[in-house]
């Protein structure tokens, strides 16, 4: 049975834990990234990126630890990361739905080399609207630009 997850707003004091969740998630799903690049991004996530978005998270109801989080800015999901121990429990879907319904997020980018994430976003109703050959840091990790496709009414 899937649990209903509550949405929380993380505090500045949660940034270290959010960064740990980010790293665990990236290491589980982004095996194409070298360790040196993950370490560089980790510092940027902790020191810059988390502060640049509206953050939401879900917490384990027993331990109260953050199990996943999303960050939204200007109508775009800039980050959605789930701790590997909590994948497949509906947290990503819950966070994405809240980001779309409450924070008006309709677009996102996903690494082309992350087929699990691409499949997840397609199942949630997103479609490809563009592509970049390099990531936001100018590195050769292609991105797909996705936008939510509103269901057509019959």
Automatic annotation (TrEMBL):
GO terms for molecular function: acyltransferase activity, transferring groups other than amino-acyl groups. Transmembrane segments: none annotated. The keyword Acyltransferase applies. Residues 13-153 form the N-acetyltransferase domain. Keywords: Acyltransferase, Transferase. InterPro entries: Acyl_CoA_acyltransferase, GNAT_dom. Pfam families: Acetyltransf_7. PANTHER family: PEPTIDYL-LYSINE N-ACETYLTRANSFERASE YJAB. This is GNAT family N-acetyltransferase. It comes from Pseudomonas versuta.
């Amino acid at each position: 049975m899937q649990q209903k997850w509550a949405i929380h707003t993380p505090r500045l004091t949660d940034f270290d834990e959010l960064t740990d969740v980010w790293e665990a998630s990236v290491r589980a799903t982004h095996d194409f990234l070298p360790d040196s690049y993950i370490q560089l991004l980790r510092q940027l996530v902790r020191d810059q990126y988390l502060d640049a978005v509206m953050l939401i998270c879900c917490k384990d109801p027993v331990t109260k630890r953050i199990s996943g989080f999303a960050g939204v800015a200007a109508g775009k999901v800039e980050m959605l990361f789930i701790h590997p121990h909590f994948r497949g429990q509906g947290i990503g879907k819950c966070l994405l739905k809240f980001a779309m319904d409450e924070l008006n997020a309709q677009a996102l980018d996903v690494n082309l080399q992350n087929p699990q994430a691409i499949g997840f976003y397609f199942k949630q109703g997103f479609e490809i609207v563009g592509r970049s050959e390099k990531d936001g840091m100018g590195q050769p990790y292609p991105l797909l630009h996705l936008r939510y496709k509103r269901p057509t009414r019959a």
